[in-house]
Amino acid sequence: MADKKISELTGATTPLAGTEVVPLVQSSTTKKVSVADLTAGRTVSVSGLTVSGGTASRVAYLDGSKNLTTSDAFRYNGTNSLQLLTTTPTVQITDTSASRRASLEFNTDGGAWSFDGGNDLWIKYGSAGSTPTSGSYVYLSRLTGVLALGVNAANRVTIDSSGNTSVLTGNVVMSTAGKGIDFSANPNPAGMTSELLNDYEEGTWTIGLTFGGASTGVVISAQDAYYTKIGRLVHVSGRFSLSSKGSATGTASITGLPFTPAGSYATLAGGSVAWYVNMSGVNGLTTFGNLSATTLLLNIPGTAAITNAADTNFTDTSAMYFTYTYVV
Asked: What is the residue range of 230's domain?
């Protein structure tokens, strides 16, 4: 066969099967090599590559047969984002070059949850790189060390770099009875039984007055009574005025305490009557509780003994202000 110029050769059928051979010079000798072996085991440098059957804006990858291909599940948006378009929601990874911040977004109807990192880290609902205008977020500042939990575009709880926690709006709500603030990290003195603060209350209660356990004809014309409970400790205060002491007789008791004292005399503690008027045979009064009862006794201090106030010490216009502290 006479030599021919390459331009005179008949074009090969494509695509090539890889078994075709071409001549090459190796160690000054002309040899043949198959097309498949031309690039086998060698790094190939190209200035451009087109994936046959690929889709524009899709990311190329190697499939299970190590063939380069594309998929509708992976897309580059042409500017700065890599998107995983399986179904809704869309997962998007963005490089916002102005601040060198990377953002990972999970697009949903109406917006996107995003992990937005730079000097500050946001986990939020809204556009990447923006301060949220609604919804909730978690915010961590690399520069200040502040960790914040936000709702409706406002910080609600923050933890600063010293570990101090601040509740900026709302309250700390214990949703389970018996739970509270545990101080067990403090030194434990002998006799300590609990370091859990699990209750706080404040409110009002209604004062009653009996003589010998009866309130026949007793009329309280005015009264105010309040209580504060911190853990097991209860403090009450009140005042009342009579317009009639009635006809009952016997030991006087103020009734209606908001909580029942514990069953030990050590828990009854005591209190005082700060002011009283229109009382008979009284030179000072104190308050003292009854075991397992929501009543108060009025004690009249004496040189030999303390006696309980009774109906004979009251008039139809008696009035007093008193306090009492006890344990439940």
From this structure: 201-327
